[in-house]
Structures are given as C-alpha cells and as structure tokens.
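tool_call: predict_structure(chain=1)
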Amino acid sequence: MANKVTMRIGLQSVREIELEVEDSDEVIAALTAAMTAEDPLAWITDTKETRHGIAVDKLAFIQIDAEEPKMVGFG
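tool_result:
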C-alpha cells in the first residue's frame, strides 16, 4: 500500500489548494500533460474521491510533503 501524501498547490493569488492524494507522481504527470497540451484544466482526484479542476495557467508552485507513518508506543 502506498503512503498518502499531502499536496499544496499555490495559485497566482493569495489562495492555496491542499489535497491529500494517493500518488503524487500521477498528479505531477496530469499537471505536466495539461501544461504541455495547453489544456486549461488538469483534473485531480483526492483520497476522498473528490475531483478538482486545477487551472494550470494559474499555478505558482507545487509543494509535496510525504507523510511519515505514525509510530505508536515505544519504537
């Protein structure tokens, strides 16, 4: 099972979108494909099965933070 990662996508505004996704490489590929195809939207599905349309011409940055498995007890 893949570790979940949290992604934060900055737009050319004061807003950010934070999504929890299963595979950040898939999201990067979707964004890259939309940018190179000059498609205005990249569609991303988060871990709650919610689809988000991201306007790729408004992207300012992408930050990916991998979640570390949480340890319980003495380790």
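agent: The chain has one helix and five strands. Proceeding to next step.
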